[in-house]
Every structure is written in C-alpha cells, then in structure tokens.
Input
Amino acid sequence: MQNNNSYSVEGFLKEVKPTKTFDKFTVREFVVETKEKYPQPLAFELYDDTKNVLESIPVGQSVNVFFSQRGRVFNGRTFVTNRAWKIETIAGGKVDTSTPQAADSTATPAKKTAAKTPAAAQPQADETPF
Output
C-alpha cells in the first residue's frame, strides 16, 4: 500500500461534492467507503485538471483510489488531507445504494404486520364479551 509516500484504498464511491473554486486553484471533494468488516468513510480531494475524472464514475461504483497525504499546521492544529491523483474503477463492482435501503424499509414493516395480524385478530375475537 505504501510506495514513496503514496497510498491506495479500495471501496465504493459514496458521495461527490460540488467543485469549489479559489483564487489559484479548483478542488473537488469526494467520499469513498472502504470494504472492511467495519466500513470507514474516507474523504479525498481532487485538484484542478483531475477534478473532472469523477464525472464518469457513478455513486456506488467500486473504485481503487491512489492518493498522497498532505499535512499542515493552522492556528496550532495539524490537519491532514488525502489528495487523490488516480482513480480506477473496478469492473462489476457497482453497489446499488438505494435499493437495499428501500427493500429493508418495506420488508420490515410487512414482516411485523404479518406477524401481528393473526395474533392480534384472534385475541380480539376471544376478548369480545358477546
């Protein structure tokens, strides 16, 4: 992973933020979620001519990000930036981030309703005084 102060991480593209333009440069931030037992969201930045590389990569796509870390001190605090310089897509690695959430939200209430309906219907019939 480490090679002359550069690193790589594999995950899926979780978020792409709008481009920001400053006096001397342009930057675009994006987030990749790692493929680990406990996934981690990692923030990266692309600068100037490399910022448009994200236009062709859909959110949810599996990617391998190559980056360098930059550090700086500001007002006595140290900040670290992950500066991406190459992004590779991984074939067949598209993750659908909307479908699983929708399926889970509709499946869970259906299971609860199905489980409660027969049990709830029978005691009401038994508890009726007439």
Summary: The longest strand covers residues 6-21.
